[in-house]
Write a structure and sequence with these properties.
Blueprint lengths: L1 H17 L33 E4 L2 E5 L16 E5 L2 E4 L5 H24 L18 H4 L5 H9 L29 H8 L21 E7 L1 H7 L7 E7 L6 H4 L7 H6 L16 H21 L10 E2 L3 H8 L66 E7 L4 H4 L14 E5 L16 E4 L7 E2 L3 E3 L13
Parallel strand pairs: 8-11
Antiparallel strand pairs: 1-4, 2-3, 4-12, 5-6, 7-12, 8-9, 9-10
Amino acid sequence: MKRIFLLLLSASVASVSCSGGGTSSVGKPGTKGELIPREKAKSFVAERPFGMVAIPAGSFIAGMADQDPTNSPEKAALKTSTVSSFFMDEAETTNAEYRLFINYVRDSIARTLLAEAAGEGGDGKGKGASIGDYAYLAKKEDNLTPYQEYLEGQGGGDEGSYDASKKLDWKIPLNWNTSKYPDVEYAEVLESMYLPASSRVGSERLLDVSKLKYTYQWGDMDAAIAENERGANYLKKESIAIYPDTTVWVKDFHFAYNEPLFEQYFWHKAYKDYPVVGVTWDQARAYCNFRTKLKSDYNESLKRRKQKPMIFRLPTEIEWEYAAKGGKQNATYPWGGPYLMDDRGCYLANFKPKRGNYMEDDKKGTYTYTAPVKKFRKNGFGLYDMAGNVSEWTESGYNNSSAVFTSTLNPSTKDKSDSRKSVRGGSWKDVGYMLMTGMRDWERKDSARSYIGFRTVQDIPEAAVKPRRINR
């Protein structure tokens, strides 16, 4: 009897461990007593995100292979490295794209405040006719599922954590026009998002950007390895003020007249296709998390749910250099090199060509500061502005000796305690040698500059790409 009991117990444990998530399990696993996976034998094809290009896996020689004008051997170490395939933004993140992030955070905060004020909801028509229409979805649904009822009874989680019972109703439109405020309670909530009258310049209503904070969680692999588990210390929670520092145009150049850029660069439509600047390393990572969440939420909203997407992130320093070379081995510049001009005498990037001269073309003028993305020719992988325009944040920490101790397979430095982060590509204010694909630079991760932006990448599962390698 004891043996029979143990067999039954082991069978029940097996059935529990094999059931999970949103799937249902009936009977024993397998088919005809054989272990045959039930998933459909369909090949997985990686979906290329909008505005990204696929960078094939390959190996290359990283570092300053031909020259080192800075005469610093620690920056010029050569190392053959192998890089896995990934998607990469074809251009630097623009003001218009980053403003979508800003608007999402703004609307999320406003909707949360409205939902808290709405309580149990009201008699609105469901289209924003009263503040009651902005109540949490669970408050407005009559027939709750058992899971929703369970969440209601839990009373929410820790402050700042995701609470499924407090899901916002994004179908109800927000009215930011004061003439269209539906009621006094609505007006009171939305006006709390703006600077008080005593802090305004003139009568202009301005959002209090210090309230625009994005809260998210990320996995700390170092903590997971140290404790040999993905426990509470594995997840790190951050709340980041995400509005870019527009004062960088003045702070970076004390003795220059850059006030028009300070006042207009980020929000004016004329600069919508220009690369966003004044963004710290932490803010760039928060943007990556937002982009992942945006795609994940969409995939979940579909009737036939798609698989959770691979995360968006900043490129590692070696990924960036490999992509910048465009498939060419020993490429001094993204277009090959070693010259900064083409056969017609036109400069191939937005940079500072001569001392005191920030114009790439003395006759046509071109660009004094940053340029709209995609104005200069792309490299062999289809990437624009991998040299000049703005320097770009990478995920990697900066260390002069990184070539010595990092792996030859997808090398990167991940020291979270190091505030120095690698910045690559050179910018509109830099001279030619800073644009070289092997040239390294760094900046403190909490610093915002008028010449540093970023672009994102997304991993591609090895099984989702053809076995093509680049070794030239």
